[in-house]
Amino acid sequence: MDSTKPYLLRSIYEWCIDSGYTPFVTVVANSELDIPMDSMNSGELVFNIGQNAVQDLMIANDIISFYARFNGVSKKIVLPIESVKGIFAKEVNQGIAFQDNSNLVDNQDSAIKEVSTQLTDLVVSEEPKKNTRKKKTQLRLVK
């Protein structure tokens, strides 16, 4: 199944642009990125991906890529979708943050097992109902 993350990223980006806001993305800092590491803050990088800040922005299903300037030098930035932590509008600080996916699969598996166990317990604890027919009522016409 495809991840919803790239679709949500694109929709929040469109909302920012349509509303006149500046879209920012936060990503997990990666040593493979060819950018000055002094831009990093607590293991995260924040990129302004607004139309005036970057060129050739592409938000695909597996990567975000764009050209940005660092200290006057244009660099192509390619970010794996998995590294994106969130996207928000700078002016109103609204957007979406994504949870850490490292525990997501384990959490889903345990939740599925728990629900499955509850359903099994429910089915086993219910005894088949006895066929109890109600007696027909005897109605008479009274004058």
In brief:
The chain is α+β, with helices and mostly antiparallel strands. It has helices at 5-19, 104-125; strands at residues 23-28, 44-48, 55-59, 63-70, 73-80, 84-89, 94-97. The protein starts with a helix and ends in an 18-residue tail after the last helix.
Q: What would you note in describing this structure?
A:
This protein has 143 residues and is of the alpha+beta class. β4 and β5 form a beta hairpin. The protein starts with a helix and ends in an 18-residue tail after the last helix. It is built from two helices and seven strands. The protein has a domain of 93 residues: SH3 type barrels (Roll), CATH 2.30.30.220. The radius of gyration is 28 Å and the shape is elongated. About 12% of the residues have low confidence. The strands form two sheets. Strands 2-1-6-7 form a four-stranded antiparallel β-sheet. Helix content is 26%, strand content 29%.
Q: CATH superfamily name of the domain at 5-97?
A: SspB-like
Bulk shape: elongated
Write out the strand line-up for the largest beta sheet, numbering strands in chain order.
2-1-6-7
Proportion of helical residues: 25-40%
Query: What is the CATH third-level topology name of the domain at 5-97?
Result: SH3 type barrels
